[in-house]
Amino acid sequence: MTESTSNSAGAEPTRLAPLRERVSAPRELPLPAIGADLCWRPANRADIPVLLELMRGAGGVDHPTYHVTRDKVELTFDAPNVTVERDVVLALDPSGRAIAYGSAIPAEGRETLVWVSLDGCVHPDRRGEGIGTALLAWQEARGLRHLATSDETLPGWLVSGAEENTTATIGLLRAHGYETARWWLELDRDLADPIPEIPLDAAVRVEVYGPQWTESTRLAFNAAFRDHWGSQPVTATEWEAGDKLEASRPDLSLVAVAPDADGVDQVVAFVTSTVGKEDWKPQGYSFGYAGKVGTLPGLRGRGLAGALLTRVLRAYRDAGFERALLNVDFESLTGAVGFYERLGFHTVRRSVSLVKTF
């Protein structure tokens, strides 16, 4: 049982001509010129404070139940696959306030396709002026530059996403050729409701997630997600960076461990948790977030994910949290939506991934 909102399709890769032979990109990449009072320029790390202020202002309208944290922005700026001065653009007004930003960032993992994520926002006070349209044109041009310089013989995707309520953003993307590819459900569970006891398979044991299980869990995650939409392998650098985020809670994360053919213990199932206390007030309650839930493909159907998840739910309850949240692919191949519903979860929000393919 595995869910994520990460990159692309599983299955065997389709071998094509190199992307550089299939994708045309503009030779020049001028900055957006819209907004007579706006100064458009490449972003840099010193812009993180004003960028975070913009993201939170826009997020108050676009996704009011969760905040963007500084360490997540820093994680993006410091990632080895990001060249900030080329991949991120920013617009400032005369007061120095950030009005818009956009990025086009290639994923590190490239097993079945080359994925470029387009992210950005416009301050609510300046919407309706055409800034978002100009920004998307820059993002797409930068994304095409990434694809057109790739030697990979794989499909290329430009990908963006939006909450269901952001109809203007979704409409803009669709108007420019981005097609709805996947819907994602955010599920919620009241921890005051009874939590079932699911016995653990006798062949495995439960361990609290920690440094000794980092690499084995990453490998298990990559294997578990390989046949899912949105799955490219997570690199060791990406995984370790995620573990360093302030919201990461290894003490509320569990792994199921069993010996491999050589007798070496390996992770065969996992539930990892984050706790973002800044989101408790806008959400209206305290909660833990089960960010990664998975089982090795060959061991699915033995109740491992359920046994771990119910233990994590009890750990959330014991920590004083009121609810549990997680995100799931609406079209999950493993029947995850029904699995979570049987454990007492229900849908509270939806978001969508939109894709342009090459």
Which characteristics define this entry?
358 residues, alpha+beta, 12-stranded mixed sheet, 11 helices, 12 strands
How would you concisely characterize the structure shown here?
It is built from 11 helices and 12 strands. It has 358 residues and is an alpha+beta fold. The longest helix has 18 residues, at 131-148.
Polypeptide structure, described:
- Strand 8 and strand 9 (265-274) form a beta hairpin.
- The chain is α+β, with helices and mostly antiparallel strands.
- It is built from eleven helices and twelve strands.
- It has a twelve-stranded mixed β-sheet.
Low-confidence stretches: 1-11
Average pLDDT for all residues: 94
The N- and C-terminal alpha carbons lie at a distance of: 30 Å
Structural class: alpha+beta
The portion of residues assigned to helices is 25-40%
